[in-house]
Design goal:
about 110 residues, mainly beta, 10 Kd Chaperonin, Protein Cpn10, Chain O, six-stranded antiparallel β-sheet, 1 helix, about 30% strand
Length: about 110
């Protein structure tokens, strides 16, 4: 995966490409821009597109596998800085803001 964001994160930062936010309801009504902005800020899932060479290198990291470019990740809501390029939204975050790597092979189990 290439880094289409054009950002090279420094220090302990990572860049995440945000999932697109819905602009219409299921019924076809367009949502106000303020609702879209609020949804973008509260989003907590995306794809890792760039990682600083220093990210995930601290001693407390332990034996956990390091998230890699292309991984789907969860991160803290309202964290980091939003940045837009070419109509795509990115979020610049500290590496410790990542909460989990989403396993694409894990199946969803319906609640009984």
């Amino acid at each position: 995966m290439t880094n289409e964001s054009g950002l090279s994160p420094l220090e302990y930062n990572v860049v995440v490409r945000m999932d697109p936010v819905e602009t219409k309801t299921a019924g076809g009504l367009y949502l106000p821009e303020t609702k879209k902005d609020r949804d973008e800020m509260s989003a907590d899932e995306g794809t890792l597109v760039a990682v600083s060479p220093h990210a995930f290198t601290y001693a407390e990291w332990g034996d956990n596998p390091m998230p890699a470019v292309g991984d789907r990740v969860l991160f803290a809501q309202f964290d980091g800085r939003l940045w837009e390029r070419g109509g795509v939204n990115y979020r610049i975050l500290k590496d410790k803001s990542l909460i989990a790597v989403i396993d694409p092979a894990a199946s969803l189990v319906a609640a009984a």
